[in-house]
Fold this protein.
Amino acid sequence: MTDLDAVLGNAGPTGLKERIAAELAAVRERSLAYTDADDDMLVRQHSPLMSPLVWDLAHVGNYEELWVLREVGGIEPLRPEIDHLYDAVKHPRKDRPSLPLLGPAEARKYISGVRGRVLDVLDQVDLAAPDPLRSGGYVFGLVLQHEHQHDETMLATLQLSRRPGLVRDGELPPGRPAAEPEVHIPAGVFTMGTDTVAWAYDNERPAHRIYLPGYWIDRRPVTNAAYLEFVEDGGYRDPRWWLPQGWEWAERNGVEAPLYWTRDGDTWWRVRFGREEPVPPDEPVQHVSWYEADAYARWAGKRLPTEAEWEKACGGRTYPWGEADPGHLGRWANLGHRAARPSPAGAFPDGASPYGVEQLIGDVWEWTDSWFQPYPGYRCFPYEEYSKVFFGETYRVLRGGSWATHPSAVRTTFRNWDYPIRRQIFAGFRCARSEE
Ligand SMILES: [Fe+2]
């Protein structure tokens, strides 16, 4: 549910409340499924890059308490003494296991207590009120998307844990042979960002007009087979393809293939949620850093697209295929953990943009060449720590969501960001090149 204006128009505020309640129930079911494990699994830190799973679990409840209960409901803090433990800015991930966190049982009890009161607030609140937190149910969109984002983070933690048997798999449509591998996007002005998507974050606003010269963009994300050519061509051993910081990072960390890949003779294997399997050639490559994506692009005689080029290729709609909500098992994209992997190249022809660019939404987050910067006219809402403190030349923008991203937490204007060395996220890329 991303365009709530449509929902409001069709069903009125009561219908909207029912839909919010259903989405809240669904996201909580998801969070509880990912933390349905023994206590050791939940309290252990599987990587210094990630929080213990039990931190994520209580944090989503604490966030819901801060925004829905206190800000909108005017309710007194339930457990004021734990607030600081779950403040993502106060405690970096690597320090979180040493905090006196709520244990798994206590965390479940706390978040369910919060949720009960949240449903009371939802029942009472006027979603047509003019204030921006209430209007259109924005605050509920905020906490829903936040919890789904943490669910995706929890999946990345589960993948890092390498423990088998924790993640269900599902069916995906087959791939299709590629038509022309690149699509030409003609020069011209397009509208970037949004003023109208009801639950869009501050960093997606305001909509603004941008002129781009003509360019070519890959029709589909770069596949494992294509990436393997770079590996086999000695791409990781040739500094010509790398930015100096990227080369230094790869050397220092012994990086010579995507994360989770190992070579056995002539065969490349990967570990996926504790299962070892041959690297499937036709899936988009994932678990590569921005530096690796950038080096591949240079080796291929191309470059990464800017985020403006990526967004323009979507064709100016909420989704590349139009306005229809992707849903969990939609025919347009591989989202919402329908399977625990990207779909093969060409699997979603109906999801193509008007330009014919495929798999922009779902499968893998796509690294772009752009730093995470505010749009002209940016206004911080509702708090600085969501976007504003991250702007600058530290984080690269990722677009489009992955197979692990819930449909409610992605659209063509959605912006994600991370350090250029990060590879535990479900990220891949496609390439672009300027007109000659
Ligand atoms: Fe958070």
